[in-house]
Amino acid sequence: MTKTLKHDLKADALLEKGMELLWSKGYNATSVNDIVKVAGIPKGSFYFYFESKEDFVVKAIDKYFCLMFTPAKAILENKSLSPKQRLLDFHEFRINILKNELECKMGCMACNIGNEMAEHSEKIRTAILIHDQIIISTITDVIQEAKDLGEIKNMMSSEDIAAFIEDAGKGAMISMKEMKSSYPIDNAMNMIRNVLLK
Prior knowledge:
Layout: H1 3-25, H2 32-39, H3 43-49, H4 53-76, H5 83-101, H6 109-117, H7 122-148, H8 158-179, H9 183-196
Helix pairs in contact: 1-2, 1-4, 1-6, 4-5, 4-7, 5-7, 5-9, 7-8, 8-9
């Protein structure tokens, strides 16, 4: 195994452990000491893999989107189903993760950190924004495909619909955590199904 591959594997393992802390505690409440403690490595080793805590978080955001969006994107790209069905399945998939795996407690790690750090770290803000734009662009393409086939009649632009769905979803996740209830995200799904993708 090459030195570079070993380095990347260890950095990835450190990211995996640290992501759980970031997701549950947020940026400011998670220290480098917390990360190395949960990973079981000396503090000095952290800086062998990452330039700073900010650098760690940017890479954690990249890893988070790769883990969470890759299977969801596969649903959008499943050409055996109609574009509208793919859109509905995509949103149901994401909501089911929030409800069944995260029990309406965790929300989206990137949304949590973005809400906390967008004003304070340009690198973190930009990392999240780049991934958000990729997601909106992917959803936009499928909405446009559905509109071209006459499956969606909504007169708003496909990009505006996609952006609104994503923004509404972020708000619904905040309410979900406050209420400790799936109602906000279930309500968002009803709006997606019965209004936005009509």
